[in-house]
Amino acid sequence: MANLMNEVARHLSNEVITQLSKQLGAQDPNQVKRASQGVSELLLNAISRNANNPQSGGGIYGAIKKDHDEGILGDLMHVLGGRKQVNNPKTMNGTGIVNHLLGKRQLEAAQIVQQMSGLDIFKSGVLMQLVAPVIMGVVGQ
Fold first, then answer.
1. Dist CA 36 CA 32 (whole Å)
2. 86: alpha, beta or left? (left if phi > 0; alpha if psi -120 to 50)
């Protein structure tokens, strides 16, 4: 898990955090950075739980094989900024990824991210949807 967190952190560079801050309308990139770290940890834990569950683990593996690839990681700034399209639109479906991984626990997760970072709860929820495709891209590697 630590290796995945390090890989995610590598892709969520200061430049990417600044881009995400602009998209969220957040004033403090440091809040967004802390929130991104929290989101990454929550989503990677959810992926790990799902992968260890025989009933849902195949779903995660299938989703990664079919819908998500590391291709977004090569030009993340342009993809997140909407200046580059991905081959499979499902790769960028952050809402679907978060729904699949967290289900009814999304509000609870956004509250945790808010408490960790100070980023408002709405922006924390949106950030989860923006970071989720990055997480899946890293896992897809």
1. 6
2. beta
